[in-house]
Structure formats: C-alpha cells, structure tokens
Design brief:
By secondary structure, the chain is α/β, with parallel strands linked by helices. It has eleven helices and eight strands. Strands 2-1-3-8-7-4-5-6 form an eight-stranded parallel sheet, sandwiched between helices. The longest helix has 21 residues.
Length: 390
C-alpha cells in the first residue's frame, strides 16, 4: 500500500453551479484548491482526476428513472421534473448538471477504489460529501450522493464493514437512507437538532432497519453548541462505535457549515475544532481501519472565511503534513481572494481557539446539560442494539 495520499481534483467540478444567488457558490472549491497549492501540499499528495461515475455506478444507489430525469434536466433545464426534486429553489436545474454531478461522484468513487486497492492510504475529495441526495430525488443542494456511491463501490469490491462518520451541521440523511437496512455499513451523524434545521431528520431513535438494528447512530446537537461541546460529543460517541465495529475502511464527511460564521445553521464551532475532529477521524482510521480513509467535503457557505481554510486543513492532515493553526496564510492567496470576490481573506489558519479544550465523557456527565442529554439520547438509543453499554 502506498503511504501517500491522493487528492481527487478536476477543475471541471467548479461547474457544479446552481447560479449567482445560490449559497453553494463553487468559488469555495476553487479557493480551496488554490490554498492547498499555496501551502505547497501538492508535493505531499498525488493529485488525481478520476473519470465521471458511469450509469452502472450511479445505479448502485440511484434509481434509473431518477438518473434519466437528471440527464433530461441537464440537457433542457426548463423541462426539469420537479417531482424528482430538480428545478426547485434548493436544487435548480442547470445545463450540464448530470455531467458535473457524475464527475464529482466519480472523484469519490475513485477515492474509495484507490484506498481499497492500496494505491493510496488516504484520499480526499473536498468537492464531494453531497450527502442529502436520495435514491430517487435531489435534495439539499445534492444531485448525486457521492458519499453513498463511494460506500456502495467499496461493498461491490468486497468490503464487509464500512463506517461512515458525518460531521456536517445537517443530518447525513441520504447516506443513512441508502444503507438503512445493511449491517455492513455503520453510519454515525453529528448534526444540529432536527427541530431547528433541515432536513428535520436524524433523531436519536433512527437506529437502522430490521436487518441492521444499531447500524445508524444520530447525535442531535442543540443549537448554539460550541467547540467544547461539539468535540466532547464526537469523542463521547464515535471512537467507541468505531472500536466495536472495526471497519475495513473509514469514510468521513467534513461539511464546514458547523462554523459560527456559517449563514445557514446555528452551531458555534470554530475552524480549530473542525481541525481537531479531522485529526480525530484520521487517528481512528489508523487505529481501527488499517489507515484506510476516504475524506469528503460537504456543506459550508461561508465561502471565503471558512471553507477554504477548513478543507485545506483536511488535505494537510491526510497528506501527513498538518498545518499549525497559527500559520500565516500566503499573501498571494489573499490577493486572489480579493480579486475574485472583493472580500478580505482571513490572515491565519486559526480562529484563535487552538488548542480546543473539552471534557471527556469518561470524566462523567451532567444529565441536566443539553449537550450531555443529546449524547445520552444517542447512546441509549443505539448502543444496546450493538451490545454496548449506554
């Protein structure tokens, strides 16, 4: 197995563009790629452009009629069939939609193949993580569910245990749905509580289908959760589950929209805490999955202030050359940001909250604390189904 990491990148993924007024501005992908390059990380990763996912691959998760509907809308956006979730405010149809969505999916599938076959130990596709797309519909800015497709491809290649960790602010509903009744896949999602945020799913009681009870775990965090609570919740739930499941591959989704500056959600997490959880996922992959790690992007709508820094940290962690939080951002990148967006770029790779302090679960919990209540609810719902003590 190669010890090097792969960065999946094709400039054409920036064509995933719902229009000028949509919050998912593809400039976030372009600026991330430039920041990765500005830090010289290209020397530490193999940059690979995988082929688009073909129809047989897309059908590992998506229904044939849905793929045909996406293709039709891609060719004629005005004729989009809204019954498939296309042509809506969240998911406007645009020319070339099928092609670029399949390209993003192909990067995640390619990442999974590279890690499974030993061509790379880690692989990152920060353009991916489009975790809301359902087998038969678009949802939440997501056309094809590249995360689910990557997992389905791993199963097709012979994997018997794949763990998926989703730390996007929104529930990873599409991935959970794809493997709801499949005991080979453990899905763990930490997200803002469904009472206060789309997609209004991800309740602790959602624990998997009749053939896979305990295969879905949901930590529904109260709005306003900050660094200490978020990192505490991660470490209170995820490592024990991964240690029990012992996946052959770890797939993680790192939506940057947990950040306190994100305009679409209500958590109060810093870049520094996001980096801490990225490191946590990397360490879990090495401890329990032989180092095999597929890391994806996801949401994130503070497209200058947060997303490029968060995902550059992710690439650096995967590359084995983590960037110290206090590091000054190269001036050339900051100038490019201003030229492209007329926004002032951040100056350092930190929000000034490093190191992130938190209290471990093993030190005890407060049943009156809302964060601890969320953790307890997840543990009580899912742990006994896996033979674990809640």
């Amino acid at each position: 197995m190669s010890g090097r990491a792969q960065l999946m990148w094709d400039e054409a993924v920036t064509g995933y563009d719902f229009g000028p007024d949509h919050p998912m501005d593809p400039v976030r992908l372009a600026l991330t790629r430039r920041l990765v390059d500005a830090f010289g990380l290209d020397r530490d990763v193999d940059v690979v452009a995988a082929k688009p996912a073909g129809e047989s691959t897309l059908r590992l998760v998506h229904r044939e009629d849905y793929v045909e509907a996406v293709k039709a809308a891609s060719a004629d956006p005005e004729a989009a069939d809204g019954s498939y979730g296309i042509g809506t405010l969240d998911d406007p149809a645009f020319a070339g939609m099928h092609e670029v969505s399949a390209l993003i999916a192909g990067q995640s599938v390619g990442a999974a193949e590279a890690v499974w076959r030993g061509d790379a130990l880690h692989a990152v596709n920060f353009a991916g993580g489009l975790h809301h797309a359902m087998p038969g519909s678009a949802s939440g800015f997501c056309i094809y569910n590249d995360a689910a497709l990557a997992i389905a491809r791993l199963l097709e290649l012979g994997a018997e245990r794949v763990a998926y960790i989703d730390v996007d602010v929104h529930h990873g509903d599409g991935v959970q749905a794809a493997f709801w009744d499949d005991p080979r896949v453990l899905t763990v999602s930490l997200h803002e509580h469904p009472r206060t945020l789309f997609p209004q799913t991800g309740w602790p009681e959602e624990t998997g289908g009749p053939n896979a009870e305990g295969s879905a775990v949901n930590v529904a965090l109260p709005a306003g959760t900050g660094d200490a609570g978020w990192v505490r919740a991660f470490h209170a739930v995820v490592p024990e589950l991964i240690a029990d499941f012992r996946p052959q591959v770890l797939v993680t989704q790192h939506g940057a929209d947990t950040h306190f500056e994100d305009p679409l959600a209500h958590l109060a997490v810093s870049l520094d805490a996001q980096r801490a959880v990225q490191v946590g996922c990397h360490d879990l992959a090495h401890e329990y999955a032989g180092g095999r790690w597929v890391a994806l992007g996801g949401g994130g709508y503070a497209v200058v202030e947060v997303v490029p820094r968060s995902w550059t940290h992710l690439v650096a962690v995967a590359a084995g050359r983590p960037i110290e939080p206090e590091t000054v951002i190269p001036e050339g990148w900051r100038q490019e940001v201003f030229a492209r967006t007329r926004q002032l770029a951040p100056a350092r790779m930190t929000d000034g909250r490093w190191p992130v302090a938190f209290s471990g679960w093993e030190s005890g919990y407060d049943p009156a604390d809302r964060l601890d209540q969320a953790v307890l609810a997840a543990r009580k719902a899912a742990y006994p189904l896996r033979g674990l003590l809640p």
